[in-house]
């Protein structure tokens, strides 16, 4: 059982990931609950009770929930739960086995820990934004996915599971300090390893990841749509050249950086000469390392993602299915998110039964 203090961003996603895997996630929403509030897909598989944590009666209910829980997750700024009386020490005094998961942008300590911030700030501070820059343009990254969800929610969920395993052996919970800056830095481990062994250059003209290579980037088509090419390995590069009809280009010169500018201009012009569907028919499914750049709605209709049931439509709205998949265990199916306070009667009845059984 996981108790989630309602918030925005990475904490709800971490709760969703745990619920998708079968955890009993109970969200403590803010009271009073807003009537008719829309369902949130990141609350799928969870139950909800709305509590006013400044009310003594509702605080007692929260304590009863924590007494029955294996883990707590929260995404407030440092000090918020302490001011409400739910500090790690106070919780551990009542439930020593409880794992206390906390996700913030800057972390629970450090000079910036009390400052406000958002996803793009955390990704910028760690140096990761620098590898998303194009020549003469500012770095751009998908909103929320790298910092909030990748560096925050994923590491919070991973930390909770690790701590739960450890608690089974030690009988003691602990605090997980999931800072997005720490998570994003960990996600950049491959780049740091490549910089250390000399295979990464900070000069875009000599680095295929930095949007200068003719065979590793997104390219615009005649219809204004885009495709992506990622043929970094020699056999895949040779296949790409063959399928593009560039028989006069020597594949052995793939990493002769002085060739890149002219060849990139040539490939850009070639891709712009035909619509996306043309290149999809010619390149998709081959070892040329190709994918069309799709919208969310287009992605849901792509044959590969449909075959894997990567997306689901719930009440007419698109949402990703649970990941990863297991050979024996079943994930919870995608569903509509809970509404605030939807399970109050059920949760309170369970708490009464638990109290009577003690």
Detailed description of the structure:
The chain has 358 residues and is α/β, with parallel strands linked by helices. Helices cover 39% and strands 15% of the residues. The protein contains 14 helices and 11 strands. The strands form 3 sheets. The protein has a 6-stranded parallel β-sheet, with helices on both faces. A hairpin with a 5-residue loop joins strand 7 and strand 8. The model has no long low-confidence stretch (mean pLDDT 95).
Keywords:
358 residues, three-stranded antiparallel sheet, single chain, 14 helices, alpha/beta, elongated, six-stranded parallel sheet
Write the layout of secondary structure elements.
Elements lengths: L1 E4 L4 H11 L4 E6 L16 E5 L4 H12 L3 E4 L5 H4 L4 H7 L4 E6 L14 H7 L19 H26 L4 E5 H8 L1 H8 L19 E5 L5 E5 L3 H11 L15 H12 L4 H8 L6 E4 L2 H6 L1 H5 L3 E4 L2 E4 L23 H14 L1
Concise description?
With 358 residues, the protein is of the alpha/beta class. The protein has helices at 10-20, 56-67, 80-83, 88-94, 119-125, 145-170, 180-187, 189-196, 234-244, 260-271, 276-283, 296-301, 303-307, 344-357; strands at residues 2-5, 25-30, 47-51, 71-74, 99-104, 175-179, 216-220, 226-230, 290-293, 311-314, 317-320.
